[in-house]
Amino acid sequence: MIFQTLRLAGDRGAAVRYASLLTLSTILRAGAMLSLVPLLSALFSATPADALPWIAVLAALVAAGWASDYAVTGAGFAIGFGLLNNLETQIVDRLQRIPLGWFTSERRTGAQRTLTSSGRELCQGITHLLTPTVNALALPALIGAGLLFVAWPLGLVALAAVPLLLGALWLSGRWLRAADSSYDAASGELAQRVIELAQSQPALRTAGRTGVEGTAIGRALTRQRKAALRLIGLGIPGQLVFGFATQAALLGLAATAVTLGVSGELNAAEVVAVIIVIVRFIEPFTTLADLSPALQNMRGTLARVHAILDAPALDPAQGDEEILPRRDAAALELRDVHFGYEPGHDTIAGVSLTVERGTTTAVVGPSGAGKSTLLALIARFHDVAAGAVHVRGHDVRHYDPAVLMGQLGIVFQDVYLFDASLYDNVRLGNPAATEDEIRAAATAAQLDEIIVRLPNGWETRVGERGTSLSGGERQRVSIARALLKNAPLLLLDEATAALDTNNERAIIGALESTGQDRATLIIAHRLSTIARADQIVFLEAGRVVESGTLPELLALNGRFAGYWRQREQAAGWTLVP
Ligand code: ATP
Known about the structure:
InterPro entries: AAA+_ATPase, ABC1_TM_dom, ABC1_TM_sf, ABC_transporter-like_ATP-bd, ABC_transporter-like_CS, P-loop_NTPase, Type_1_exporter. By secondary structure, the protein is an alpha/beta fold. It contains 19 helices and ten strands. Adenosine-5'-triphosphate binds next to helix 10.
């Protein structure tokens, strides 16, 4: 844990300086304690004046100890502040490179907590916890070693007591750790449920569900309460075991000192001095026990930080030169792609398809067939388990993520808008675009009528996650972004589902008119959208069961034709050749 924390700070030189000063400080403390033995022995001897040089030694050691403690504190602060600066950057950098599929709601809550509080917690850990912990770990061993020179049997007993006491501490910590991790998990789940409760209020109130009894949040509260009680309860046996070990060590050391006194190997003054040293020998273990809960927290914080920093990142495959898209290649090619959310279950089970430049492919299929998953794989929100996704001639895993994203215009069902102006939200599609280009994209995406209606026009803030806009309006902002980006491959997930027919027609027209060379892959439910596609791919249970043009698939009279007729009946729609 100590090394992990120092590594996170990323400043090797500062860590070495800190470790050296800390070692020096611990040696000086041990030396000061052990100097009590000759000092007291001289003081109670026939010539008490002999104690004077030892008082000078003690004073020098104490003064040097203070000075080194001061330097250790300074070095600890330097590392702590370095870590505070460094960690947030490392976490944000990693979060931007983690596949989107990693972000379950539990991990999102964890990441939020990690980003907002870990830097401070670890900085405080270094400045307030690390120094006393290392001191407390090293001091007894040094005192034990020093006692070997005073009276070797006593030194041996002290050195034997070190693993015994550390073992007792470890055992009580182990119980606490188990209880702590279930408490942590229960707290994380509760935090998630609270967010869910806030978000699902409309649905819950509509259903008349206002109490917590028998609900997910009620169960999460009960679990957290039980975990808290277990955490408190498990502290007690730990304390008992540690208390017993401390008493046993104290008794063993005191008995050895007295035996040495009785046998004449130590004089009375030396026995008194040694007993004082023995008491100081036990003290660091008590300090460790007191620090244990805080150290436990620090361990939890480190685990949360590493859960993010060690998460898989979307890095391009290592190579000498940057992979750039090929103009002559197909816009998209899936080669026997397999992928599953759960091990052993393929959501996408061997999909192959090609989308040529300048063409539109409609992906059609029943709910749960894997259509959205397929789009997520193309955008590399997840990595395929087997097979490959090629965008403009290269495997998506070989691209630098920024280059890959530059190739894709994405309009998904879930449109994320930032709490910024409408203008800024559209501009996100291409931050380098001119004002005229931004306005043109907005007009093509049928945003003008919204802009006129909003109180501050373009400058109106759209609210957190775009809540002040309707679903169809949010989708139009997303389409405007995609138009502005004008990427060679457009991925649309039922992008027009929330639009009325007039808007849809205008937007599809705009999408088709810009970028003649652009390829489009669209998850389509509307018959009009399917009918316009150059190629239709019918997906079922993660497999392409039929593909071809509309006339070809209707002539085949298979799964797609059945699906088409069903929807025609539902929509009162008939295709006239
Ligand atoms: P729809 O038309 O209803 O949107 P779809 O064809 O787009 O469906 P997907 O959303 O790709 O289907 O889902 C395919 C399967 O994968 C479904 O069984 C779904 O429950 C499952 N699935 C989707 N996302 C996840 C996820 N994040 N974790 C686990 N399973 C998932």
